[in-house]
Predict the structure.
Amino acid sequence: MSEKKLEFRLGPFGKFIPVIIALVFIAIAGINQSNVNGYVIAFFVAVIASVPFAKNQKAYGEAVVSGLARPIFCIISVAVIMATIAGRLVSSSGLIQTLASFVINANFTGGAFAAFSFVVCCVLSMSTGTSVGTNIVSFPILFPVGVMAGVHPGFMAGALVSGALFGDNLAPISDTTIASAGSQNAEMGGVVRTRVWYSVPAAIAVFVIQLLFAGHGGTIAHEAVGDLVPNPLSLVMLVIPVVIITMCFMQKHLIFALSLGILAGLIAGVASGLYQFSDIFSYPGGFRVGGIFVDSILGSAGTVMMLYGVFCLLGVMEKSGVVEAIGQKVIKLAKGVRGTETVIVLTIGIMAWITGVIAVGMVALGDVIAEMGEKVGLNKYRRANLMDCGGIGLAALVPWTVHTVLPAQLATGSVDGLSLAPTDVLIHNYYSMALLVILAFAIITGFGRKRAPVEKDTKPEK
């Protein structure tokens, strides 16, 4: 027996009410440069205020909960909490001040440091295939050091996010690369070889932008370098990112990698004398609990709550048919080669905005995009590249996806008095912007449209 679709009052328009309410409050949050809590409000107001419009309240409740049943929700939520713990262990040890002192004294500051950090994140993301994992590893150390070394905070966040997205876009072990290639039945090596023509020019553009402009608006008070008291002993806390990166390189689960990194940091911190047990776990009585551990968990609450709201709304949208309806509406706009290519990019981008996960749209609409593309003569490699580059380009340029919310969470508080909003991250994400410019050029001129690698004939010889 097929599952009954969630229905709303006010006819076909009714199912879009939750989306409209969310967008209104998202706009309010963005206009007012809200932190992540503004987006928490947007998604929970949308879920709550839409209840009177649902014809079946029980079905509505089940739809809300169904969004939380996605494994990706559990993984990202737990990863955010663990990343906050790992970051707090690093920052409270004095490691950031030590590294910042070394960097500033070496005059490796401003745009040079930002460009270097971008390259580091490119290497990390290409090696691990995950932008989320790269952000979790890079932000607790590179972001505050960069800001102290005179990099504009927005540019610094943009450098790290851009580097993380580069690998997500190009690495053969990335979920988006696998989904885009698999959904179009394209050979993985060929997809990566043809995608280089999109990804590498975008990366070069980001490197140049960071090198030339990231130091503008940053502040280096060289006389204040003396206020940074380096503690060489704090370098032992580098064990945390080293363990996490090593586990990711070994293709271990992200939660496992983070857990092992935190455990290694706890042991190193206590054994070296940087931390006392009471610094990490404090039970002062009077129904109170303190210490780095619980403070970190509570500090991540805003981001985790926003993820709850996003996935609750996603469940409602899926059960009511909004996701399917939007996909079908956009696909009907495909006219001619350029029109079809534009629709492929927009369809995956819009699906990523709705679901928060780029690969979901690729898997859900892969067959439709393949059929649509074949009708106008688009080869499978072109289709795969349009899907992946469009998803990476558009998904990270809205303030409610993990590509903007997580970096803002990781950056906020890493430097005293600094708060970064999701909108600050997206307006400095030059990799996604460069990808969209390259895609527009490719669609208008036809650049790369006929590029397809020669595949080996796997048929046995007669």
About this structure: Residues 221-225, 457-462 have pLDDT under 50 and may be disordered.
